[in-house]
Amino acid sequence: MLSGAGVVIASCEWYLRQRRTSNTWCFASERDNMVNMTEEQQLKSGNSLRDVDRALAELRRGAPVVLRAPDGAAAVIQAAETINNESLEALTKLSGGEPSLLLTGRRAAALGIEPRQDGDYEPVVAIALSGRDAERVVELADPTAWQGAPLRRRTLVEAPGELAFGAIDLTKLARLLPAALLASVESDGLRGEGIPADLIGLYEISTTKVADYRQSAARALRRVAEARVPLKGAENTKVIAFRPDDGGSEHMALMVGTPDLEQPVLIRLHSECFTGDLLNSLRCDCGDQLRGAIEAIGEAGAGVVLYLTQEGRGIGLVNKLRAYALQ
Question: Per DSSP, what are the bridge partners of residue 266?
Fold first, then answer.
């Protein structure tokens, strides 16, 4: 039988598993259904998390990875913002022709590419490089850098379905610009004439693991530490830390007082904001919202603030600064 505090923390764990992406209020008056995982499921989830994390690390350091779809189709991808002329040439050798540049539909619209006949944009589009060098590729991907003429729809080529979605998703998970170079390769391997030795044996990840990553990370959260931390406006506060099995960023639950489970429990879901929470940026009121929530819960006598470490709603601090530059 869980104590009152235990039930609230169980609710906190569930909300953290949902990975809500907005700063908002909610009420929880009873324990939500928890996700129970068998040891086999936990092991499989942990392995999938580590596999995707390895791919993300490769992309962030500028290395290409192999992405494979369930139907066996495969491609070598590299984050667009890390590309240089040498790696662009290597990708060209892999595909036997120019790789394509994958962008989100919104970015394509900003570049002047016309929508489809039904007026909508594809979620992911593929652009022919048409001889563009690495510098121009980065400019196409980076909204703070492009100063060229609008592109035309005829520059588009067919995006390879699941591989294209997986490639863009990987760059987002890596907190890089949501753009990638993609070179289709033979499904039976990368070995071939003229392929650089350092591209043979690239790290490989499946699109299925990429698609399941967020859910796997949410299910793998566990409590790892807690301590009483008196806060201004809420001195009776306990901070509880949660960490996913892959050792990723910790999320925090700030439990104020002892919530009465016979009454609605006041809960604040707050996305991390370095510029607002810590620097008191005037571009947002996140810091004011956070401190106001703590004070309001303190005045109410009990409640929880869930502090989600997902800077910029998950895009990362660097991309948030890029967005600021466009405002």
Answer: 27
Picking from 102, 108, 81, 104, the residue whose alpha carbon sits closest to that of residue 160 is 102
Residue with tokens 């601090």: 317
Nearest C-alpha neighbor of 304 from the set 31, 20, 30, 11 = 11
**What letters, b where the CB count within 10 A reaches 16 and e where it falls short, cover 168-181?**
bbbbbbbbbbbbbb
pTM reported for the whole predicted model: 0.74
Predicted local confidence at residue 35, as pLDDT: 41
Residue 49 CA to residue 216 CA, distance in Å, equals 7
Distance CA 31, CA 11 (A): 5
pLDDT at 20 over 50: no
Residue 14 has pLDDT above 50, yes or no: no
Question: What is the C-alpha separation between 114 and 154, in angstroms, rounded?
Answer: 10
Three-state DSSP class for residue 150: coil
pLDDT of 200 higher than 80? no
Q: What are the C-alpha distances in Å from 311 to residues 16, 37, 81, 316?
A: 15, 28, 19, 5
Amino acid symbol at 233: G
Token pair for residue 130?
Answer: 């048409």
Query: Tell me, what DSSP letter sits at residue 232?
Result: T
Question: For the chain, what is the largest distance between any 2 Cα atoms, rounded to a whole number of angstroms?
Answer: 71
